[in-house]
Amino acid sequence: MRNSSSSLLRALSLLDAFDKGDGELTLTELADRAGLPKSTAHRLVGDLVRWRALERTPDGLRLGMRLFELGHLVPSPRELRDIALPYLEDLHTTTRKTVNLAVRDGIDIVYVEKLLAPNEPVPHSRAGGRLPMHCTALGKAILAYSPPTLLDEVVAAGLRRMTPKTIQDPRALRTELAAVRERRIAYDVEESRIGLHCVAAPLFDRRGEVVAAVSVTGMQSRSTARHLAPAVLTASLSLSRQLGA
Amino acid sequence: MRNSSSSLLRALSLLDAFDKGDGELTLTELADRAGLPKSTAHRLVGDLVRWRALERTPDGLRLGMRLFELGHLVPSPRELRDIALPYLEDLHTTTRKTVNLAVRDGIDIVYVEKLLAPNEPVPHSRAGGRLPMHCTALGKAILAYSPPTLLDEVVAAGLRRMTPKTIQDPRALRTELAAVRERRIAYDVEESRIGLHCVAAPLFDRRGEVVAAVSVTGMQSRSTARHLAPAVLTASLSLSRQLGA
DNA sequence: AGCCTCCGTTCCGACATGCGGAACTCCAGC
DNA sequence: GCTGGAGTTCCGCATGTCGGAACGGAGGCT
């Protein structure tokens, strides 16, 4: 057997073809990216369009409204967002910086909400976006309070270098995480993008487990980042309390 | 043959089972709602979990992060939201009411963004939510500027009654839409929910077609609604210009 | 304890259904 | 026109899907 995917997984791989940025693809491109014969892709696309996972446009196909709807029904980000939003807004108005909320998904973080700073240029991440844990303040805040097996997974997956300052040595990451636990605050000093500084703090649920993190970010200097730490920490404590910790 | 669904559509019907509000379902419930035998559902769910469309929890299944991610990649709401957000924020701060942005999908509207009023209790709609066009200000604003065949579709689908004030007579709807065109403003006077008033205006793209609508809503009186109309109209004009109209 | 219910999981034979190469059509552009 | 690349249709083969039935395990009620 050529590959052990079920028919369903093959169909879903068509949707995967869209997460590399492009908003609109032609059937042939789609078939190529998913590694499916054109005629198979054609049939599957027909069903996906019927279900509105995809929409036909004058010149191609794009993700459809049904996915938009379902995406907003996903419970874990939705419940968290509903509770957190007022706190994020407070942080946003007091700091006047970009505020982020992210949850862990596997060994990545996924942005759940992002309140942009008034003058923010093009942001490097967006709600729904995914970034590795080891190179973001949000990720390190979560990782520092997670069971050690998770760190092993992260290391095993390879500490991918995003900028010259990305931590790539597992030992360095380990001591960094110890420092995070010391302060209850994680920093990202141009580790995911040059020029970008970030301060994050973990959020705990009623079982005392980290489920998410908040951060304030912007192009400010390192000292500005330190200066914002108390605000982030305070918000994270209030929010953790609200979550039942 | 029991039903002419392909295997793929049957699998997707499992996801449909979640949009009736419940965040978490058991495999058996899921199979029942989708009308599938348990063993078939079991196999399909396995693949959906593998793809992260679903997640296993201690006691059931729920929608997974992959859907959250993909939902945020859907181009039509995403592009619109990115452009509109600053305008919505202006409207939000000047009116201090709940501000909505919605697009048309078939004969419904789907909320793309919602900025809650500071003191808003539980809102009756949310981003990603869907409501019929004939009973909402947003829907009527869009419908009034759409080709007449769309109105026919809406009427053919039946003007479902949501409150005692919902317009149920096709003739009444037709004259209402003429009035909307007169003013470039649509009102919802407790037609989707008792006590709820709403003012909306349509948004046009570069081809001059309605693609969306903005609204301000809240529990205010009818006169308050009228009073907010100029603000909504102004925002809609600026925004349409920004969209290239 | 014992029983009972309701959950998820596994098995397997029969058969429908998805598969995909190849051939066809339709534009758009040298 | 012709050529390239788009989307669509066809159809026979066999593969993968289907689903009834039986199993196992985790509670809950008497």
UniProtKB/TrEMBL annotation, chains A, B:
Domain HTH iclR-type: 5-65
Pfam families noted in UniProt: HTH_IclR, IclR_C
Keyword Transcription regulation: yes
Source domain of life: Bacteria
Positions of the IclR-ED domain: 66-245
Keywords recorded for this protein, A-Z: DNA-binding, Transcription, Transcription regulation
InterPro entries per UniProt: GAF-like_dom_sf (IPR029016), HTH_MetabolicPath_Reg (IPR050707), Tscrpt_reg_IclR_C (IPR014757), Tscrpt_reg_IclR_N (IPR005471), WH-like_DNA-bd_sf (IPR036388), WH_DNA-bd_sf (IPR036390)
Record's protein name: IclR family transcriptional regulator
